[in-house]
Amino acid sequence: MIDNIPQLLAAFAAAIAFFVIGTGLLQNFIYLVQLGLAAAALIERPPSPQPGVLWRRYAEASPPIALLAPAFNEALTIAQSVRSLLSLQYPNFEVIVINDGSKDDTLAVLVKAFDLQPIERHYEIGIEHQPIRALYGAAHQPRLIVVDKENGGKADALNAGINVSRAPIFCSMDADSLLEPDALLRAVQPFVEDPERTVAVGGTVRIANGCVIADGRVVEVRAPRNPLALLQTVEYLRAFLMARLAWSRINALTIISGAFGLFRRARVIEVGGYTRGTVGEDMELVVKLHRLMRDKRLPYRIAFVPEPVCWTEAPEDLRVLGRQRARWHRGALETFERHWTMMLNPRYGRVGVLGFGYILLVDVLGPIVELLGYVLIPAFWGMGLLSVEYLLAFLAVSFTFGVVISVGSLALEESELRRFPRARDLVLLTAVAVLENFGYRQLNNLWRLRGVWQYFRRSQSWGAMTRKGFTKPA
């Protein structure tokens, strides 16, 4: 029996190696399929025409939209952000800013900047939220409504905004994000073309760090100068242009970014609005909409349109970025826990089989499997329990496919959307797409593992998100 221990250990090491390498191969195969689906979607439906053509084509048929912008301690940037929103190119919209119990002068800044006065506006409590203290408006700016309420978090603030809004479509966003002037007109296209089935639409979120910004508009796209922001730029291209466009093509999209998404108000009220007490309220809402429509056996569509762009400021500090990524992963795990019965359930179609299967593979098992790979496989090799072929196979799976996917996403962006006009920015981003697989990817996995730990501890901490604000580069 003792003589068999080395053989048993070798067999155990080989089994773990096969599991880790097999899981990695499956993940990368999925990424390749996503890249192919995204490319097919862009070829099938090339970028929309210029804003003037869009206006003539969609303006008359476009439904009213309410922009919901929750704000908490945004005194430094809130006035500029609201002015930017009010100048969007869309025929019929209102801007509802929800001051979620800010401790700074956010409300005072808004009152002074827009000459706001208390107003009366009838609304029904279709979704529960913290009490509203007052509503404010201005006679000279009828599109703007400011809601002042008790603090309850972003989901609670959005629920209050949904109740106060009257438009059939609402757009959820962050108060410190910047929308391109024609973003709403581009994002609303699925609601115009397929009004009966479309319940939600997501748009692209891009990194604004390094760009030239004037009067709340990105006037020149540039690659960030900060290394962390550069790495995130490649990540965002991969996440939005590749993954979300691919899932949208097969109607299995499980997340629309909280920074920019359009939703049919009646359906959102029907599912109870945004779930409070979770840090993944954006993903949770989309999954609830899938579940509602599948349970009712109604035809529906949750789409992603790559052209409407929302610009956001990316963290440039490792601690802030780590807190953000851990929170994102914790939110995905919370959503999976609430709706795990949808997983591999034929009743929920592609979203149950493919969407939740992907969440299980990448979000639930992914961080742990990757950790096992990085720790155990080299250890087994060092102990002589694993051949060098297994080690090399693991390294090939970990790095080669990662480089191909990242560079492929960047090539897809440049060939179809061409957002980066400067050639040196493209060269720099291509180099970053290669280098991110050697260090940054592993660091991301550590942040995801922290999210797993926080999930098991039932932590609901949001974590401070220190921002520098949008400034004009020298």
Walkthrough of the structure:
The chain is an alpha/beta fold and 474 residues long. It has helices spanning 5-44, 51-58, 78-86, 106-114, 154-164, 183-187, 189-193, 227-249, 265-270, 281-295, 318-338, 349-364, 366-382, 388-416, 423-435, 440-456; strands at 65-71, 93-100, 117-118, 132-138, 141-149, 169-173, 178-179, 198-207, 212-214, 217-220, 260-264, 301-312. The strands form 2 sheets. A 10-stranded mixed beta sheet has the order 3-4-5-2-1-6-11-8-12-7, sandwiched between helices. It has a two-stranded antiparallel ribbon with strand order 9-10. 45% of the residues are buried. The mean pLDDT is 88.
How does the SSE layout of this entry go?
Elements: H1 5-44, H2 51-58, E1 65-71, H3 78-86, E2 93-100, H4 106-114, E3 117-118, E4 132-138, E5 141-149, H5 154-164, E6 169-173, E7 178-179, H6 183-187, H7 189-193, E8 198-207, E9 212-214, E10 217-220, H8 227-249, E11 260-264, H9 265-270, H10 281-295, E12 301-312, H11 318-338, H12 349-364, H13 366-382, H14 388-416, H15 423-435, H16 440-456
Helix pairs in contact: 1-8, 1-13, 1-14, 8-14, 10-11, 11-12, 11-16, 13-14, 13-16, 14-15
